[in-house]
Amino acid sequence: MDRRYRRTLAAAVALVAFGAAATDSLARTNRALLVGVAKYDNLPESDWLAGPSNDAELVRDYLAGNPVSPFARENVTVIASDVEGSAKPTRAAVLKGFADLAEKAQAGDFVYIQLSGHGSQQPAADTKTETDGADEIFLAADIGKADFETKKIANAILDDEIGAALDAIRDKGAFVWLVVDACHSGTATRALVANPKERQRKISAAALGMTPEMFTPAETTRGGGAEPDRQNALGLTQADGAAAGKRGGMVAFFAAQTIETTPELPQPADDPAAKTYGLFTYTMIGRLGENPFVTYRQLAQAIVQQYSATSRIKPTPMFEGDLDAPVFGMKPGDAVLQWKIGMKNGVVTLPAGRINQVEPGSKLAILPGPQSKMEDAIGYLDVRSAANFSSQLAPTAFRGRSALSPEAIPDGAFARLAERGVNFELVVARPPAGGEAGKVNAALDAIAADGKTPVKLKLVDAGQPADLRLLVASEAAVARQISEQGQDAMPAEERAALSDEQTLWLLPPSSEITLRKGYRPPQIALADADRLRQGLADNLVIVSKAANLSRLAAASDASIRDVKVEFLIQRAGAGEDEFEPIEAGTAPILRPEDSVFIRASNKSRGAVDLNVIHVGADYAISVAQQPIRLQKSDEQPPTGLFTVDGAGSSYGNERLIAIVTEAKSQTTLDLGYLAGRGMRQMTRSATAPDGFAGLLDDIAKAPATRQMKDFEDKRATRGAVQVFPIETRPDD
Length: 732
Fold this sequence. Notes:
By secondary structure, this protein is of the alpha+beta class. The strands form 9 sheets. Strands 16, 17, 18, 19, 20, 21, 22 and 38 form an 8-stranded antiparallel sheet that branches.
């Protein structure tokens, strides 16, 4: 390959599997501490946050009703800003919350801990133990300014203190799941055309009274692809699960690395009345709401895939500890998305909503009971409105059945998700007015009107939520804006060489931009109107394909059991049989001359086709030259895909995508038509694509919103998409 290359489910969900799982947890106690710091006594309101308190409430509500192992309300402590019944999240209150957990915890208990708010850094007490010369800290509501003499921030909670508190709980024999939705100061990029409703959970060192002179650089080393800046957002040491003695295990989820920021924003994005949540927390609870019968590793992978589905190339969440353990300590399995139907004032209601993937556009089958098969459906429901944990529906005509009257729905009936929407729409935010933005808007309008470009395009104003943001500016102007935001690491001679000619920049949803060589976002010249239009159209097609592949990965419940696909890294200079597997939920760093391989095995009931796609940092798509046909019991040995080019022109966050489809004919399903700018025809039989194959075909044709089929239909092709993020970097 060329280098350029998925509720709270209420207790009403009376499934046999759910009941069995809950029985396993009767001998233990579930406890939780939920901290959300949104307001800070000694910081200006401009540095306050909106989402941490909402995070705490969202998690509290999910834990109380989760079908795997519900948490009793009296065992869930909320310490969050402006939450009714909650203590103010001061340093003393948070540390007392930890101490209370350690005092009450018993062997076999399950403890969930959430920290949402600002994080920062202060000079390390021991630079020998901190590779970056800094202690990571979590900011309580009563933090103060840094003291110049001690170089410490008053009332900050140190990573070492949190680590000791976790150890005290684990020493009682309890299992701990820690989730940190906070971050520090990202240093590589700046947002120039941001969504005003989206902000980063970060605070400048200067706002806390910290100066560069307070920090003493520590010696760092790098080898074998490891990076000293690849630390979690509290700098905690690797969460050891298989500890000695009776110490309980641990899993830790972090929204970002110390070098990154993590956002909070109104969610869901299409709800005008949406509350603000941390992106990481909302995504994680949504994936759990979809299927709680997973391992932590599977949950991590689902989070990463959802990020990719929304075109989020950063931040890079981190996951540590007993990742192969089942979430909440329960046995992994398959969740059936169904709920007992309620009725209120003649309106059909469900105790499930957006968190459970019950969203406007979804269709649900009306079944006589929880054990009914899909073919026993007596009618269907259409989702009219949905909140996080509740929804309102109406009977609808669907699949040849007439709409039932609400009165005809029998008591005790269940609604089961039958068809889920996959939106292949690409939302593009126009550039801010000024300069030559008019040329870009004219090109956008022409592309939207001609109907020839295979993109389902939706144009919104600058600053609105979008998959892709546009900026018209010169390199020199971008450099000045970055400098004005307090960051200017570019040497004077490089700044002098920057062009004053305006170009079109294609930016991610966060609108972050950098001028570092090899990391710049795509640019298009504005001088020639025809070339601008064609260049923009070509790039929109590429971005749309990349986004839709990720959306399909996040939305698809379908999978093919017993087909295993692994991506492997072979480091420069390593032996030919030395490989590092890319773990789910990680984003390893690759340097020039590092190579990527793929390995696969098929223990399913029939043959499958494996297509491999690579999406570069510049959205360029490349597809392995030939799909791999795996017959039953076949194994594909490590096969080389590409080597990172030392002279590459594009580095950054990239994606490896494995697409497995059921083989329905003697001809392999070749997805080469998704590559690059070309529209190569699919190599297969002449029959119209169905099931999963049809969805893949739609990625290129960009029709109106496509619905996920119920894959109990044995006639349709089944398939699965897996996304693995990586990061490429040039040699330093």
